[in-house]
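#dry-run=false #mode=assembly
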Amino acid sequence: MIQLDQLTKSFNKKLVLKDLSLQVNNKEILCLLGPNGCGKTTLLNLISGLTPQDSGNICINNQLVSGQTPTKKINLKPSERKIGYVFQTTSLFPHMRVEDNIAYGLKALHLSNNEIKTRTNSLLEFIDLSEYAKYYPHQLSGGQKQRIAIARSLATQPHTLLLDEPVSAVDPQLRESFRTELKNYLRKLEITVIYVTHNLSEAYIMADRIAVMGKKHIEQTGHPPEIFDNPVSSYVARFLGLNTYTGRALGIHDNLLEIEINGIHLYAEASTKLTEKTIVTTIKPDNITISKLGAPQLSDKPSNSIEGTITEMVQMRSTAQTTINIGFPIHARLQINTIKELGLSIGDKVQVCFDPQSLNVFEDTDT
Amino acid sequence: MTQSVSDPKQTNLTELENTTPKKLQNFLTLIDKSAIIILGLIVITYFIFITLPVASIFLNLDPTQIGTQLQNWQVINAIQLSLYTSAIAALLAFTLAVPSAYFMATRGFPGKTILDTILDLPIVLPPAVAGIALLYAFAPKGILGPTLTQLGITIPGFTIAVILAQAFVASPFLFRAAKTGFENQNRDIYNSARILSGSQIHVFFTVSLPLNMRNIISGTLMAWTRAMGEFGATLMFAGNLPGETATMPLTIYTLLYSNQTGAILLSIILIALSFTVLVIVKLLEQKRFGAKK
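#status=ok
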């Protein structure tokens, strides 16, 4: 288990982390998700001891590895913290063979040659690269190098593995398969993992739990679906690519909260406590459906059905990111099939519908 | 197809000709052409300026005399002394400059920039100033003089003074090369080693040093050649005593009016050495990890 308590760090008077607290449970894979430059790598460097924090405590496995006790200051060396660290760039020692790379930490521990050999071999087996023992790093692919970097960091049997965007060292066309491979290895390991990424789908695939990092602190933690369904701040919602609007809660009608965004009235299943407050509402692009103008309403309950104009369509693999202006722009992810069936194109007037349940409403704390 | 492609070009050209007066255009072309010729002449002049003096040394060598000169005790002594002192000076520079470079490259501390600048100083310092500075530090009346005298050590006028002068002037070349190497070492590789190994010394010898070998070797070679060529500081601090402090450059100076062939032979040896070192350094700069098959 890792416990970070009120970590603060600045570089040249520029605050990078402020009072950051986070708990990572035993044997869980926690994805630290956030945009580039939000301080994710800095946080890993603090945990590993490569960079000292300005203030705050770091506990690994209930042991204070860095911070202040009532009586003294503690700051263990990186090598004493029982962590493994896989870096963003391929950080293998270029002048050593694969087996010597993996054995590096073991040799530093002055283990017997037999012990080193056994452990190195079993790690090579674990990452399925036994036949590459005698190779030099420059003879391997990006994915192989990162697997070896993982094996090397595991050699000293750490309690925790830190991975900093490990996929970015892999060729783009191989990233998807590498992700799956990596996930299998990490699951098999059964150790605590902190996995840094700025990629949403990667976090979704890898994580037991996601911690979304905002400017200088953790914005939200939770299981992947939880975060995507219930973002707690407009920052998280925007980062996750949800439609995010600021508006006002007006009152209750038929057990639904009526909200107003830019003059448009919407209904949401939300707490009545929000009435009369400035709120943030989010809608997932997947929860929006589109029909031709004048199509019959499916139910007679108050629902959100608004007329709008298609302003943009970006085709992806099997879906299209569609932007519709309904008084404000709203993004919908539509199946290509649907678009073909309805014969939609830019400039068309359409009916935009979404369930009151699909709206997530919370009080605006960002402003 | 081809016509439609070439057509717009032609219209463009005619337009240009119409807008720029023909005379001016010819004049501009002329300037352009002559600029290239002038540039060529400058390059040739520069090349001659550098190579002519070097070549003239070779042209003045009487090959029949080489055998006799190689038995001249002054020449032999100078070669032996220079090889011996410059090697020790390079070793001394290596011992002091490489660890210091590592420290300066990997640690931050107040006053680092000032210290760094001071350590680079001998590169730009006139050798005569270096000589007088060494005298005021190590001569019997210098700052360390009384202590050294008490210990029974006299430096000026002896071979050790030659070594100190050479190391003083030459070590910054190695320091600089090594520091640049350590500063540019891949952070992630270095940090990986730090996490896996608790010992800084182990990390230094297994990762930092081997990965910067090219820089260090070329720095050492540069320092060695500089030590070999040291003249001013040696003359002032160590004197010009045959067999004791008269290195090759100093002997060239001594022999200039008495035994020109000897002076020429020594010069040629120094040229050959410097040239070889430059070639090796250039080769080292080109070679990269992973480039080998």
